[in-house]
Here is the input.
Amino acid sequence: MNKQMKQPKGPAAGQQAKKGTMKRIIKTLFGFYPVLLPVTIFCIIFSAIVSSIPALFIERVTDIITNNFRTGDWSGAKAQILPMILILIGLYVLSVAAIALYNQLMAVITQGFLSKLRCKMFDGMQNLPIKFFDTHKHGDIMSYYTNDIDALRQLVGQALPTLLQSAVIVITVFIIMIYFSVWMTLLVLLGVVAMMLVAKKVGGGSAKYFLSQQKATGRTEGFIQEMMNGQKVVKVFCHEEESRKEFDDINESLFENSFKANAYANMLGPIIMNIGNVLYVLVALLGGILLLTGAKNLSLSGAVFSISIVVPFLNMTKQFTGNVNQVTQQVNAIVMALAGADRIFSLMDQKPEEDNGYVTLVNAKISADGKITETDERTGHWAWKHPHQSDGTVTYTLLRGDLRMTDVDFSYEEGKEVLHNVSVYAEPGQKVAFVGATGAGKTTITNLVNRFYDIEDGKIRYDGININKIKKADLRRSLGLVLQETNLFTGTVMDNIRYGRLDATDEECIKAAELAGADDFITRLPDGYNTMLRNNGSNLSQGQRQLIAIARAAVADPPCLILDEATSSIDTRTEAIVQRGMDKLMDGRTVFVIAHRLSTIVNSDVIMVLDHGRIIERGSHEKLMAEKGVYYQLYTGAFELE
Here is the structure.
């Protein structure tokens, strides 16, 4: 059972995203698109500047019209105005082209960025230790690929371009404002300061709850995924009402955070808009006062204050405050995206599974004199290639399946030992069985052999080599594993069997299915080996799924097998068929068997009885029965495994 990580609750979960998250997003974008992104930025800046220029033309045209109105001479007005109109039309045409180009490029960049990021996340996830998946809800992990990625889509595809465009317009308009009139610009700046103070107050409240909302969404999806997987259990124990109550609590937390986040966010827009409207009136009022009083204009242009300044200035005020409002409207998307990005980057920054091994598994060729050499051909023989760092020589050790654990201690959590001074010796070709109550440490031993977890003390040697020196991928390639919980993937039956060895031929897959006793039912399926399996093989019985899993291990043809309750879901009649196939499969291999059904391990070479992480009995079936200890009582029914 997964040990779930405790999740934070309520507003306290809405901590600020790590500093530098935005910087990392932008750096990643440039890393993915070093050419397209600068081109897009140029197009955005160009179109933004063009949209701010008309104010200069309006001021000039107003002056021309005013002067000609006073003199009554319109002959030269057309000659002066027409070139400006043509220039403006040309700029707008270029601006439209730039906008069309950057919209197309942003579509490519946004979707490409998300696609590449998902790939990096998934690639990184493949290198994470099993412990990560044991301590995180699977639904919450799925939320990284859905909600968090979608939040980034809004940031990259909408918020960042809008921010850049608005920032350029605000800067350009501000420069033009200063050029026209310092006094009126100062009034606009006071209005903008008021907007920023409101945005900080209201936006800060929404940011806290948007962060909480993002995490609450992950918890909700994790719970739903858990309930979907366990729906039969929920129904058979009539646990529907309790599930509803638990979901209501989780959903209520999501509702509260979402409600408060959006309540703050929805207040921000109208407030900023109305401040902008008030500012527009105040600018018009100040302009009228300055015109009526004939006050001296203070500007970079040195122009006399006139109606030709007030008219474009009012338009610029609308444009200025409108773009400030655009920026504040993107705050929510930015906050959500930073929360999502922070979670995504935390996943990408997870420490990968450590692998300091340097001993590899290679195809081996054995000469007549017994010398082992490496070959590219598949010979059916394998050897450990051991480079010696001291002198640079390489030695080869034939893979035989000799596994030995000596004085091993292990704990999943500090201070809670699961195994205590455990020693296990499995010679090549031996069948070693583990018996004990749930939690005794049986599966933990197999986890350590696969190096899903690393031991704290003691030694594990494989063919005389410390397994810490063996590369994990090569170690696991030499081990076949059949779990009690069967996992089948979307694809055909043949694809699922071939999962054990991707280069296996159809004939080899069919032979493995025959060996496992699965061929009989597979050939009776609608499309035989080409029958599609979906949703973990829900169109098959549990026993049939288990048979395919056994066939998958058989096609891998490993020298060492680990069977963790491999026949637990198979009925007695099917078990007899499978057992014959398993006996053929186990012939000549080192086999570790975990079983509650003691009849399946009677022929084991060694049976070990575990209790609370300690081996309390060890020996063959006959020896343990003669001792009349715990195993004897379990076998005769005096005791039962819990």
User: Anything to note?
Assistant: Residues 22 and 485 are 42 Å apart (CA to CA).
